[in-house]
């Protein structure tokens, strides 16, 4: 009984630290939203500047919604009880890239989706997968220099569906790679600490684990390399004859 | 004619850096997104004041401050640490070694406060490090 009490206390302590870390990470976008709101209220702004603030305000709010949703879903389904289903990774990638295309233009970056000839069906959760891809791609957009090219590609290999996000920026720092790749399932706080990339990648990692998938960061000569892996779905492959 | 105040913003969040620069339209503002390019920018043209984030790619704000204070011509350049990290009193006390350093938490940052801090080089929060006496003691530039 005492051992169980200690375990519960340790769990509550970890959850408290995780929530503290998450709350801290959400402060930055909230500060940004307030700055935009204050500037939009000022006179003398050009139409172009007002439009830029409006777009960035919307995307920052969108980022926060995705992060918050990801945190909630990650906790809810963190024990592997998430109901999984066949998902069209190609379609989800396409939708996410379209959604972020305006943000890419705002940042003078090139977001390219290399659409495969056939649908790539994986076992996952459509909303969570979209949340993961949004966080990863938005993270790449926000933390790479202007004129960076970000390539999103969907592939299939050895019974797995692969989504890669590769940017031509400076690449991930070693401590970020170590923390995201090695962090345990319930150590969101460890993954967010000192990453510099914040909550987005840590949330993405946790959601991928909930979908029985994986998120890996790699160092690449070309820049940042982020790989999302899910099990390929055989069910729809047999029914629809798509590429298996 | 009074020259514009030269402000260097060292911030990896590009949108936050841009909105800070827009809020300081009366200043001559440069933006760097990491410590290394910031040091290079300072070598090219010394700023009057630096707005510094503590979480930077490849380095951190403290390491940047250490290097900044190691050079004679930037030893007294005022630095406003603008971070979302809420520092403890002990941490703020530890930062005194890099004086003149001021603190502006991002959660307190508004365009108006930023303008006030930059133009008057004074703290706008209760996290002020220097007292008025030490600020008026006279610094070599």
Short description:
The complex is a heterodimer of chains A (244) and B (141). With 244 residues, chain A is of the alpha+beta class.
Indicate how many domains the architecture of chain A comprises.
Answer: 1
Strand line-up across the major sheet of chain A = 2-4-5-7-6
Number of strands of chain A: 7
> CA-to-CA gap between the ends of chain A?
50 Å
Q: What's the helix-strand series of chain A?
A: HHEHHEEHEEHHHEEH
Radius of gyration of chain A: 19 Å
Supply the number of helical segments of chain A.
Answer: 9
Please describe the biggest sheet of chain A, giving its number of strands, its sense, and whether it closes into a barrel: 5 strands, mixed
Q: List the secondary-structure elements of chain B in sequence, H or E.
A: EHEHEEEHEHEHH
Query: How much strand of chain A?
Result: 15-25%
CATH topology of chain B: Rossmann fold
CATH superfamily of chain A: Histidine kinase-like ATPase, C-terminal domain
Q: How would the global form of chain B be characterised?
A: globular
Helix content of chain A: 55-70%
Which structural class fits the helix and strand makeup of chain A? Answer: alpha+beta
Poorly predicted tracts of residues of chain B: 122-141
């Amino acid at each position: 009984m005492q051992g169980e009490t200690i375990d519960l206390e340790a769990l509550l302590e970890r959850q408290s630290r995780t929530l503290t870390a998450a709350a801290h990470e959400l402060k930055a976008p909230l500060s940004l939203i307030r700055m935009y709101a204050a500037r939009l209220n000022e006179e003398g702004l050009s139409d172009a500047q007002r439009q830029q603030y409006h777009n960035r305000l919307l995307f920052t709010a969108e980022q926060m919604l995705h992060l918050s949703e990801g945190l909630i879903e990650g906790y809810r389904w963190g024990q592997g009880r998430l109901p999984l289903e066949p998902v069209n990774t190609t379609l989800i990638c396409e939708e996410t890239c379209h959604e972020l295309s305006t943000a890419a233009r705002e940042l003078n970056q090139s977001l390219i989706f290399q659409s495969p000839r056939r649908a790539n069906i994986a076992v996952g959760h459509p909303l969570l997968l979209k949340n993961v891809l949004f966080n990863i791609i938005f993270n790449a957009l926000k933390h790479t220099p202007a004129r960076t090219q970000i390539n999103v590609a969907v592939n299939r290999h050895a019974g797995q569906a692969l989504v890669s996000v590769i940017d031509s920026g400076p690449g991930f720092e070693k401590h970020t790679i170590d923390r995201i790749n090695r962090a345990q399932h319930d150590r969101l706080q460890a993954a967010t600490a000192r990453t510099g990339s914040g909550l987005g990648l840590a949330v993405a990692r946790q959601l991928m684990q909930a979908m029985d998938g994986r998120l890996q960061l790699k160092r690449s000569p070309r820049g940042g390399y982020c790989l999302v892996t899910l099990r390929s779905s055989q069910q729809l492959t047999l029914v629809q004859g798509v590429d298996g | 004619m009074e020259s514009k105040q030269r402000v260097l913003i060292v911030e990896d969040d590009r949108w936050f850096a841009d909105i800070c620069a827009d809020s300081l339209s009366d200043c001559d503002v440069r933006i760097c997104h990491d410590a290394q390019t910031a040091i290079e920018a300072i070598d090219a043209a010394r700023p009057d004041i630096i707005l510094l984030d503590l979480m930077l790619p490849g380095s951190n704000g403290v390491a940047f401050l250490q290097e900044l204070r190691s050079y004679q011509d930037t030893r007294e350049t005022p630095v406003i640490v603008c971070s979302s990290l809420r520092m403890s009193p002990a941490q703020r006390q530890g930062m005194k070694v890099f004086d003149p350093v001021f603190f502006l938490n991002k959660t307190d940052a508004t365009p108006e406060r930023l303008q006030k801090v930059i133009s008057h080089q004074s703290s706008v929060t209760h996290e002020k490090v220097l007292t008025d006496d030490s600020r008026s003691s006279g610094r070599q530039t």
